[in-house]
Amino acid sequence: MGGITAASGGRNIDNGDLLSLQARMKKDPPGYEEELLLQLRHFDACISILLLQAPVQAPTGPTPAGESGPAKEVADVAMFLAHMAPFYPQHLKELPQKLLQVLSNYQSLQPHLRRQLTQSLILLRNRKKVELTQILPILIDLQCVGDRVLRKLAFLHIIHDIRRTNLKHKNEQFNRSAQNLLFNILKGDEEVKAKRALVVLAELHRRKVWTDERTADAICSACLHKSPRIMIASLRFLLGYDQEKEDQEEDESSDEEEDPAKLSVNVDRESIYKAYHKGTVSSKRKKQAKLQRVIRSMKKQQRTHSREMEQGSHAPLQHVVDPQEFAEKLFARLRSCNEKFEVKLMMMQLISRTVGIHRLILLNFYPFLQRYIEPHQRDVTLVLAAAVQACHDLVPPDAIEPVIRQLVNHFVHDRARPEVIAVGLNVVREICMRVPLIMTPELLQDLALYKKNREKAVAAAARSVIAVYRELMPSMLGKKDRGRNADLAAKPKAFGEVSVATGVPGAELLLEDTESENEDGEGSEDEEEDDDDDDEGVLTLEEEESGDEQVTSDLDGEEGEDEDDEDDDEEGDDEDDEGVELTGEETPVRAKKKRKVEGQETPGTPGTPMTPGTPGTPVTPSTGQSLRNLRKQAVSKSIDTSEIKSKDGDGILSNEDYEKIRVMKSKRAAKEALSDHGLTKAGKKRKETSVKLTNPDNLSGRRVDPAVLEAHVKRRMEKEERVAMVKAGREDRTPYSSRTATKQKKTGGMSNKQKNKRKALPLAAVRSKVARNAEMKRMKGRGKNQFRGKKAWKS
To answer: In degrees rounded to 5, what are phi and psi of residue 19?
Structure first.
């Protein structure tokens, strides 16, 4: 029995004997039952001795390896019994309670004994001999001890145990009991325990184990805890969640391993062909780089959309039970707290995020922020980012107008520094994208004058403000700032106006696709008819030089297309969107030719473009739009959702119809992205600055990065600084010397260039060279005049 006798009572047994006894007992549990009872009685005796000792503060140092005593024996025997628990369930069913009883006096235990008993308790939990809810309070208490190893051990076991329990499916009963324990500890008065409970909840939420509303609401409620340390910890977690999520998305977007079935970009073949086969080498390289940027950006959008559709958003602020009450309570604490400015700044940021995500109305928050909008304010970009995040379309413009006025008066003026002006203009742009009704024509025209500023950052910021209102409300801009084809009737939605969907989003694409197919069919028939009249439609040179105006067309495949446009890679990248597109019987020919062939006179003035379907009706020049754009607008306005038919004609869209809508939306998005990057002719003609405006509902839920609002203006260096920089760049440079001197100083063998010159040529090359030299000599001698001697009469 390894020297173990009943008389000894199991005393004075070292760890090696226990390990050997443990191995033999696992092989034959019934044969070693008496030895187990001896070790169990020895364990009870050691526990009694420990509990009778006076509770004194234990030393923080580790127990030496050769130290003996009740503590060392209890640690070894406890681990031994924990390993034997699955083989002797009847005898060791009270072991977890005994370990919990000893660990309840953790303050008076030695560090080594605490760790060993905790490991034994964790081992019993892994063997399903005890529930987590029974050991969870003691594990939280053990994290409050100043033992870093023990704190990490207890913390990781809680996280891994809960994660392992919910790995296959959500165990709601287990989660509810564990959450109640942690929530009660978090709401308690003991600050250290409450903070450890908050850390556990935050880690479980970060690992997406507990993402329910109860956990999110508990984490957000910790911001209202009376302890400043717990409030600061909760604020940091909530504010850092969005930043961590953005970093993860950037890491995922940089990963090249993508599922092609899920991420597909419908770029037309014509754009791909022109990027790889048309133009010079440098122009093709530029177009290929732009095409790759378009594909990467669209794949990132698809990845983000698919992730939100599959998983949804797990941000804790989006799952607060009562966001209005939470924001009001936190704002009341902000106004009455005496914490540092950094803490106040975090509270302002969290309130603004809550207001933006849930689109709350907190009118007293904007005058509070107005006090900190000063150029000399510390971390003013964070305050301005909070002001931007708190703006959405449900906030009355009158409540934000004082903020805009103070921002413009204190940041955007002639005596301010360039970086201050740029920051002010950027903030104005972001606020106006969310609340466009706040801008007045006088203020907008004053801000537009900064587009001619000599500082590039200021001019770019001013042009971005102009670009926003080119899309939203061009009538507020001056005539020079509106751009081409500006729609003066465009204006943002009125305050409180809501767009209500009356049908399936994107269903009108099915009707447009049906009409385009019908038009293509008619166009093909008309082209066949026009092929028979090609001989009659040939124009002479005199007719071209006569100066008569003609109506141009964008129809593809026309034989009279200009050849210069095919060779020019810049002009031939896409169809001209500003041309006139005529379908059906209105096949484009010159007006003069049309009168000759048909024997009719057009009622309109020669050279006046005709509207589709109504010959002789000129386009109103005040609109400034081409006939193609007008036709598209008329088609979009005339679409009635009741006319949309499914594939079967019963009015119910099938899965094929939804898939077709998805593909058509993807094609339209790809076409817009190509135009934005200048890969189409319409995009190249757009010389003015343009911005891609996002839906205000999506803007209000996004986090505003303060770095985007900043402007980096390069300061002009003095002469001494420039000279110092030049000298610093010459330190590692070798002294100047001529090339001949460098070659003369060279030591070693010949260079590769010299070796290639002396390299023996192949036999065929040698013969060719000899024949070529002989031919050159023969040709050179053939051109000389032969000497025939002097003439006798000239001598």
So the answer is: -65, -40
